[in-house]
């Protein structure tokens, strides 16, 4: 399990770095769950199903403050001008992009994959061993992977 | 003036694509935005479009279906279609190119990537 966590951490970190750097010139750093907890930011969540070649779920939980900072950079708008719809859309697009980069990184180039549409979620269930925490602009952001079939999920890394 | 239709269900993605296109020399273009393939198809039929930029994963009508519609229409068959997706890789790109896509790019995009991809189009269509 530790080996899988390390592999996942490397791939997800690379995907997070590329996504936030491209979207808003923001860098991310890995951190512990305790650091995220200490920051105690209000968060928003979104999840997305990876449908093929193996079914599993990716969740992204981000500090609202970070999303506002990214949106301010991207849209060149004042905070008062940013509405919830735009912030939710941004959150969904971050996960969509991270998921695509992650799948491209772990699969051979000849293997197609299919992503579902991102869905907003208020619930932060936790409990998964596959949670990867980051800090960006002093705000927490986390990616969680959930699978009902760990063996199938592990098979993605056997090539 | 060039007319460009951007079809993506994410307003964030549409904004990023539009900004990148503006940076690489298309600031004067007229942009039309669609939230899905069906709206995108309607827009390219309504306006004499020079470029269609489309996502793949969209509700109502996905980008692959939109590409099929465009390439099966005698009036639209020559319209260059650039697919920008998070669900792309070598195998998917090959399939989309065989279907008639002008190019396929993976998210996240940036001006340098788009400039390189669209260079042939920009060079041949300079106003």
Descriptive terms for the model:
heterodimer, A: 159 residues, alpha+beta, Chemotaxis protein chec, 5 helices, B: 127 residues, alpha/beta, Rossmann fold, five-stranded parallel beta sheet, 46% helix, 18% strand, globular
Rg over alpha carbons of chain B: 13 Å
Q: Give the biggest sheet of chain A.
A: 7 strands, antiparallel
Task: Kindly report how far apart the N and C termini of chain B lie.
Answer: 8 Å
Low-confidence stretches of chain B: none
Number of separate helices of chain A: 5
* Number of distinct beta strands of chain A: 7
For the largest beta-sheet of chain B, the strand count, sense and barrel status come to:
5 strands, parallel
Question: How does this structure look, described?
Answer:
The complex is a heterodimer of chains A (159) and B (127). Chain A is of the alpha+beta class and 159 residues long. Chain A has a single domain, classed as 3-Layer(aba) Sandwich (Chemotaxis protein chec), CATH 3.40.1550. Chain A contains 5 helices and 7 strands; from the N terminus they run αβαββααββββα. In chain A, strands 1, 2, 3, 4, 5, 6 and 7 form a 7-stranded antiparallel beta sheet that branches. In chain A, strand 2 and strand 3 form a beta hairpin. In chain A, helix 1 packs across helix 4. Chain A is globular, with a radius of gyration of 15 Å. The two termini of chain A are 17 Å apart. The model of chain A has no long low-confidence stretch (mean pLDDT 90). With 127 residues, chain B is α/β, with parallel strands linked by helices. Chain B has one domain (3-88, 100-110): Response regulator (Rossmann fold, 3-Layer(aba) Sandwich), CATH 3.40.50. Chain B has helices at residues 11-26, 37-46, 63-72, 90-98, 111-124, and strands at residues 3-7, 30-34, 51-54, 81-85, 103-106. A 5-stranded parallel beta sheet of chain B has the order 2-1-3-4-5, sandwiched between helices. In chain B, helix 1 packs across helix 5 (111-124) and helix 2 runs parallel beside helix 3. Chain B is globular, with a radius of gyration of 13 Å. The interface between A and B is medium-sized, with 29 and 23 residues.
